[in-house]
Amino acid sequence: MSFAQRLALVVAAALAVSVGWRLSPALIDLFDGTEMPRVVTARGELAAEERSTIELFQATRDGVVAISTAARVVDPWTRRSYDQPAGSGSGFLWDGQGHVVTNNHVIQGASRATVALADGRRFEARLVGRDPSHDLAVLKIDAARLPEPVAIGTSRDLQVGQKVLAIGNPFGLDWTLTTGIVSALDRELTEDNGRTIRGLVQTDAAINPGNSGGPLLDSAGRLIGVNTAIFSPSGGSAGIGFAVPVGTVNRVVPQLIETGRYTPPGLGVRFDARVNALANRQGIDGALVMSVEPGSPADRAGLDPARMTRDGRLVPGDVIRGIDGAQVRTLDDLEAQLDRLSPGQEVELDLRRNGESRSVSLSVTGGS
Questions:
Q1: What is the domain-level CATH number for residue 345?
Q2: Does some domain include residue 38?
Q3: pTM (2 d.p.)
Q4: Which domain holds residue 242?
Q5: Residues in CB range of 222: below 8 A, 6 or more apart
Q6: How far apart are CA 130 and CA 257, in angstroms?
Q7: Is residue 142 within 8 Å of 128, Cβ to Cβ?
Q8: Of 49 and 4, which is predicted with more confidence?
Q9: Member of which family (predicted)?
């Protein structure tokens, strides 16, 4: 086919299309400009629960902070050290003095931490204290005109099914709100280092990497826990999150601010974990008292420690079998019960001595 013939075919096709357009009203309608956007349907008032959630978020978001950390690394070639971004997390203002509560694992290993407020201001923070046993830490920033700190609630009357809200910094998405319910209470979580955190609140509110250290709030906007971990094979939210209960937070944080460390409640007695584990394996339930501190509440209550015979045999003294009605089978059980108490609180111990049961009352000390 010659060039002239091909050109004639192209012109004929173009004319056919042109005629088709002129003969097709549907095609003409596409370009006549008469189509308008659809009318928006009025939605009416927000539901009461929606208004409550919005108001709660607006009232509490400014008390929540975003935390970014850096770790000091050494260049293997130049031997020079520098700060390298290490991670991010969340936290919240504890008081008007600039104390910020977060998770210990958020700042662990960090050489520097930066706290960002909701108004855009950023501050270098210093570490005040930390408690790995409860995965809690306190930072401090020097800042004027701080927002109101998050209100403190209680974890004593929490019930499975009640509404909770989490505000945090998941994946660096600052001040993200998620909602859910209390899924379970008094959970235990064993960390990668083998340490067990007890008494946790379980929630299905979406918690992801970066939420750690942020507040878990009740429907009144009060702190009821500090988000600390998730259970997820994939590393993302799977609807199983855990928070340190506010009762624990309210015991630990004041000590961290005052002394930089947390000293758990005690009875004025000493235990030996290895000896106790051996006794448990031999069928002896309870916590074996190995020694009693002179002048302590346990000493005044007459607790009898174990003693060693001349031929090297251990003769048990008092074995603590219960505390305030809660059964104690192992040393871990006793420590878990003590961790719920406050210094000066009166408790009743159920003891076993020489095959006989007895009870004594004493006050809890500030340290074991």
A1: 2.30.42.10
A2: no
A3: 0.75
A4: 151-259
A5: 150, 151, 152, 153, 154, 246
A6: 9
A7: no
A8: 49
A9: Belongs to the peptidase S1C family.
